[in-house]
Hints:
The protein is α/β, with parallel strands linked by helices. The protein is built from ten helices and six strands, in the order αααααββββαβαβααα. Strands 1, 2, 3, 4, 5 and 6 form a six-stranded mixed β-sheet that branches.
Amino acid sequence: MNSSIQIYNNIVTKVTFIIKQLKLKLTKSTGRTLAITPEHTISLAIFKQAQGIETKKSVWEIFEPKCSYKTLVVNMNKLTLYALVILQSILRMNQQRAHLVKHTDSTDIPVCLTKNGKRHKTMEGLATWAHGPKGWYYGVKMSITTDLKRQLLAVRFGTGNSNDRETFKKMNKDLMGVFVADAGYISKDLEREFYIEHKRVLFVKPRANMKKLATEWQIKLYNTRMLIELNFRSLKMFHGLVTSLPRSVDGYLGNYAYSLLAFVLR
């Protein structure tokens, strides 16, 4: 319990500092004083994801905040927008100190078990059927750009069948450096449109029948892509990115936002 409190207090310190730096006003100047401050509500949500705790109820039982469980859930979901503002500020800071070499890839995020996809209603309109590395799933797709230091630089969500190449152009339009992507991004048009002399270039991992055309240093560059896979693994296995428990769209979006925040604040 003591270690949990220490971890939580560290999160509170970071969240409070960033909120002050951004001059975010999370509470109204009039009205009843909140039983638990927005800073602590956001911190509890991040703590849940950082510790891989499955439910909000478990967090409520651990800390016993001075509010009802329902109030805590409502406030966590309501503060998702501010969590995204905090996340965006961290991404901008990471972009300013990013390594020259960057990686972009996407991953599938199921919103329910495959067998329940036809009956799922909560994320209807946002989630779609799509085919991923593990087969068919019903959910959304998350694309991220990270650097050689595994810093998160950009994030974008789309439907499960969204176009990776179009997403790549939009999320990286303001970033510079040497970009490495997998074979799914192979496109002469994309490489040509994305290229800026002396500032930006895209290297796409060659398909098996094209490896003989790649130079030794290009192969080494492509092999660094394993780092972005480690980021996906961390987000899914240790930061609770994938869930089927929320009962509202706000609950799902909050889960994704707090999971990403827990990852960048680790």
